[in-house]
Design brief:
This protein is of the alpha+beta class. The protein has a domain of 117 residues: Trna Endonuclease, Chain: A, domain 1. The protein has a 5-stranded mixed β-sheet with strand order 3-4-7-8-9, with helices on both faces. A hairpin with a 2-residue loop joins strand 10 and strand 11. Helix 6 crosses helix 7, helix 7 crosses helix 8 and helix 11 crosses helix 14. The radius of gyration is 54 Å and the shape is flat. It comes from Kitasatospora griseola. This is Restriction endonuclease type IV Mrr domain-containing protein. GO terms for molecular function: DNA binding; restriction endodeoxyribonuclease activity. InterPro entries: Restrct_endonuc_IV_Mrr (IPR007560), Type_IV_Methyl-Rstrct_Enzyme (IPR052906).
């Protein structure tokens, strides 16, 4: 039984037993299953009567509403979504002071570690620059040939089978009176001879077959190529040794090309211990004075660490801590001195035939866009090189890890002992005048180094008859020495020699000083030599009676003496 509901719908009445049949949802499209849509006003009034909150969503069990059949509609693309408005920037959050301080402290620590690594690298350079170099003389450059066996372990080429290995022994002499030809016709011997010939022919065929197989496999060609390569290698070693012996002959004759080649080879080998810090050195040999002029390129100034580390300031900034300028200058001079001593040692060690009379070394600093500056110059003769230990001790750090004072550094002290001039500040524009330059292989008289000039004066006067030399003073300006000539020679008696290499004219005061030195030494005569000229007052003074024992030789006279006695054509 169905009754009308308050909202106009249909409901089934409860049966007699009071049971309510389950709700049935008629299928869509049937006439008796149409459902009535509830009006909004009724639900609102019902909720209001029940006291429900209008804002709170409530789920109501309602019969499903029959939906009409879907109707196909044309496809219309959905409009693009409108861009969302940009989010407002969040307000800046102040950095945590503790975190900022931690980051700054970590940065300070890492930068300080990098500076310490630079110091360790520089200390390693100092140690390696102080290592002794190997002598690159001719004996050490000779090569030896050691044959290499064929890599294949196969035996050598098999010899051809010889008949002597197969021939049967001749029959014994049964009857001495029987001729030898009769014994050889013995039937047993002939059978053995025929069998031996067969074995020999068979061995020859097998040997030829094996030889043909070796040729086809390429083993013979490979062995022959190996032997030819060994012959070529032995010939190359012999040719190199022959050329080296020819260079040695030219070196003993003081030919400039041979001397310079050997010196530069020795200098390049010495530079091998510090390949990460190249210090090339060019050599020029002056055959007139038997002096080698070496031009050494010094490392850049930034090779020495200029910082001792980094520190954190009170306001949290990271700032570098500079080393004292005096320490930086001392470290660079220490490195330059060790490189110079190493070059001098290489030149001295290679000269086993005593061709060099002296060595002039100039240390040049070459900066891009600026002319080169000479920071140190050494003028040492062979005697000075022989009595000076050119290899300093490897230690360069004190007990407290601080670099030693430059004034007490061993390398600088030994370099100064060789009459070297060193700039006081390599970081300033303070250069020194080199004792000799490598540009002039045939120098003029004024371009001679102090050592070359002293050697020239002594050689000229020794050729003139003066012997028993005793040098009293020697320096950049010249020398003062005493010598004696044998009776009957061109320069007899005892002499006081004063020679100067400057171009300044000699004054009368210098002539008077020489006369006084002659009297004090008890000498017979005095000789004043100069690369320049004599003033008129000096020449007039020698005409007086008390100065008549003073003899004068100017620059032109020195050149003529060198050409006459030594065959040295010095340029003007």
């Amino acid at each position: 039984m169905q009754i009308g509901s308050a909202d106009g719908g249909l409901r089934r009445a409860p049966d007699e037993q009071g049971e309510r049949p389950p709700m049935q949802h008629p299928s869509e499209g049937r006439a008796d299953g149409a459902a009535t849509v509830l009006q909004p006003g009724f639900l609102a009034s019902l909720f209001r009567d029940l006291g429900a909150d209008e804002d709170e969503p409530t789920v109501v069990d309602a019969p499903p509403v029959a939906q009409p059949a879907p109707v196909a509609a044309p496809f219309v693309p959905a409009p693009a979504p409108a861009p969302e408005p940009a989010a407002a920037p969040e307000p800046a959050v102040a950095d945590d002071p503790v975190a900022a301080h931690g980051r700054a402290a970590a940065l300070t620590h890492h930068r300080t570690l990098a500076v310490q690594a630079d110091h360790e690298r520089f200390a390693d350079l100092l140690r390696r620059a102080a290592q002794p170099v190997s002598a690159m003389d001719f004996e050490s450059q000779l090569r030896s040939y050691r044959p290499k066996p064929y890599p294949d372990a196969a035996p050598d080429t098999e010899p051809e089978p010889a008949w002597a290995d197969f021939a049967p022994p001749e029959p014994a002499d049964a009857d001495p009176d029987q001729p030898r030809s009769r014994r050889l016709l013995d039937s047993g011997y002939q059978r053995e001879l025929a069998q031996a010939r067969l074995r020999h022919q068979r061995a020859l065929r097998e040997w030829r077959t094996r030889q043909a197989d070796l040729v086809d496999s390429g083993a013979v060609a490979a062995r022959q190529a190996h032997e030819e390569a060994e012959l070529a290698r032995a010939r190359a070693v012999q040719e190199y040794n022959d050329s080296l012996e020819e260079c040695r002959r030219a070196y003993r004759q003081a030919e400039p090309a041979a001397v310079e080649s050997l010196l530069e080879r020795a200098l390049a080998a010495a530079d091998g211990s510090t390949r990460d810090l190249p210090a090339p050195c060019r050599a020029v040999f002056r055959a007139l004075t038997r002096t080698a002029v070496l031009d050494l390129d010094l490392p850049p100034l930034d090779t020495v660490p200029a910082l001792s580390g980094y520190r954190l300031t009170e306001d949290g900034a990271v700032e570098p801590v500079r080393r004292p300028d005096a320490d930086v200058r001392a470290d660079y001079l220490r490195l330059a001195a060790r490189l110079a001593l190493r070059a001098l040692q290489a030149a001295d060690a290679v000269d086993t035939d005593d061709v060099l009379a002296g060595v002039v070394l100039n240390g040049w600093l070459r900066l891009p866009g600026r002319p080169p500056r000479c920071l140190l110059s050494v003028d040492a003769d062979r005697d000075a090189l022989a009595r000076t230990r050119l290899v300093p001790d490897a230690g360069h750090l004190g007990d407290d890890g601080v670099y030693a004072d430059a004034e007490h550094d061993e390398s600088l002290l030994r370099l100064r002992a060789l009459a070297a001039v060193i700039t006081p500040d390599p970081y300033a524009d303070e250069a020194v005048v080199p004792w000799g330059t490598a540009d002039a292989a045939v120098p003029a008289l004024g371009e001679l180094s102090p050592g070359e000039f002293a050697l020239l004066v002594r050689s000229v006067l020794t050729a003139g008859g003066l012997e028993d030399w005793s040098v009293r003073l020697r320096g950049p300006a010249g020398l003062v020495a005493t010598a004696e000539g044998q009776p009957g020679s061109r320069l007899p008696g005892r002499w006081v020699v004063w020679a100067s290499r400057g171009p300044a004219p000699v004054t009368a005061e210098e002539i008077a000083t020489l006369s006084e030195a002659v009297r004090e030494e008890g000498a017979d005569r005095g000789l004043r030599m100069t690369c320049g000229q004599f003033g008129d007052d000096a020449v007039d003074l020698t005409t007086e009676e008390r100065h008549q024992r003073i003899h004068l030789v100017d620059g032109q006279g020195i050149r003529e003496l060198a050409l006459t006695h030594l065959a040295l054509p010095l340029t003007v």
